[in-house]
Amino acid sequence: MREKILETVTELFIHKGFHGTGVQEISKAVNLGRGALYYHIGSKEQILFDISMSLLRSALDTTLPFVDTDDPPDVKLHNIARALLRHHATHGEGWQVAVREARFLSEEYQQQVIDARREFEQLWHRVLQEGARAGLWRAVDAVDVRGVLGMFNYTARWMRADGPLSPEQIADRYVDLLLTGLIERSERSERSDRPDQPEPPPE
């Protein structure tokens, strides 16, 4: 029952926002009286918090197995990127609620959501740091990690299940773009300054 309520309220928050959705409207949508509704969800804020945390925990649980492996860092990066976009393909609209509406949570709830986001970011940071240590790309910091995740997370706003590219294909395209962009500037400069080699004379 609670899972059904979460799904229904997520849809309401998507279309009307947190403040635009009333408790009476939620009661009607899930066919429960106010008393029964509060028994299941506690409050409107509680259910927004639960939506946000359930998505973050699910993303963590989906990503962690690909991080705790002996795979090379570039393989890990592809795997966690695919996992994230698969998650967005299934829960994309819920992510929009979690990102857009979570600012209306109380300070205590917001802090828990922020902590969960940081925990998820740390998984990506670990993989990117491993690649840097292995010499596959340059060193990264928190700004880089958030920029990378911002690119992937925005995909939830336009990616379609029936689109021409699968979530995995989009993830691979993004990773390829990232890896090209993570080459050291000095190396790129050397490549651009390197003169074209003349064709060898005919024998």
UniProtKB/TrEMBL annotation:
Q: Which SUPFAM superfamilies match?
A: Homeodomain-like (SSF46689), Tetracyclin repressor-like, C-terminal domain (SSF48498)
Recite the UniProt keywords alphabetically: DNA-binding, Repressor, Transcription, Transcription regulation
Protein name per Swiss-Prot or TrEMBL: HTH tetR-type domain-containing protein
Listed Pfam families = TetR_C_24, TetR_N
Q: Which residues bind DNA?
A: 22-41
Q: Which Gene3D superfamilies match?
A: Homeodomain-like, Tetracycline Repressor, domain 2
Keyword Transcription set for record: yes
In this chain the HTH tetR-type domain maps to 1-59
Q: Which GO terms describe its molecular function?
A: DNA-binding transcription factor activity; transcription cis-regulatory region binding
Gene source species: Actinophytocola xinjiangensis
